[in-house]
Amino acid sequence: MSTAAATQSGHLKNHVYNKVVYAAFFPESFIARDALLAFAAFLGGMVNSVAGGGGFIAFPSLLKAGLLPIEANATGTVALWPGQFTSIAGYREDLRRNIRLVIPVATVALIGGYVGAWTLLHNSQKSFLRLVPYLFLLGATSFAVSGPVSRAVRRRIERHGNAPEHVALVPLLAILLCICYYIGYFGAGAGLLTMAALGFCGVERLAEINALKVVITTVANGIAVVTFIIHGAVEWRFCWYMMIACAIGGYTGARNARRISDRVLRPFIIALGFAIAIYFFTHRSAM
What we know:
- The chain is mainly α.
- The chain is about 80% helix and about 0% strand.
């Protein structure tokens, strides 16, 4: 088969895949589809601002709308990223006090995030889709253990009290490189992994842990966003209004964070992540 014929065949398969998935999960109306995707982005932004895990909502929604797996992941990452970026402003003071760590961890985040995104784009659709249940399982598990891990980090901070802070920089950067690779590739549940790495490698103040976590995840996702856009992996016909809906959801979540119980929302995200993982595991033969 010639290169042109193979390309045309691939486009035809993608078109058929999109039509079949779209018809199975959405009504004929484009308005209904767009409304459902906007609502998913709104929920994703709200969940991210309170507990994290917005990708658990955005990615499956885009997949069910008919996007191919890699494009669904890339589009969801771009749609959810602006809400992360704006949250950096709230940690300005903590970042100034820890400026010696900001540059090295941001550099590692750039490298890891780019390599992860590059790896995703050079995967086949089928191989990535077969990894999806394991990625959701990893993300859901990280959320499930978030409570014990957070308490362990807090206990470590309390034990050290006002003792001088000593950060094991080389091990921290090595661990963060792996985490940021995962962020660029998929990223669900990476916030907790980042927080645990910072806490156990010697960052003592909880506010600084949160500030550095936001920088690391935002930079890693940011370079992934740029990479996805440059390589044309983003479906802008969905992404532009999902970005707006996500921003509104993030603002709504932040404004009502005290009214939205994390003890209720986090178990919901964990259950959703495991349910999606189980769904993909049980439908692997059809992938």
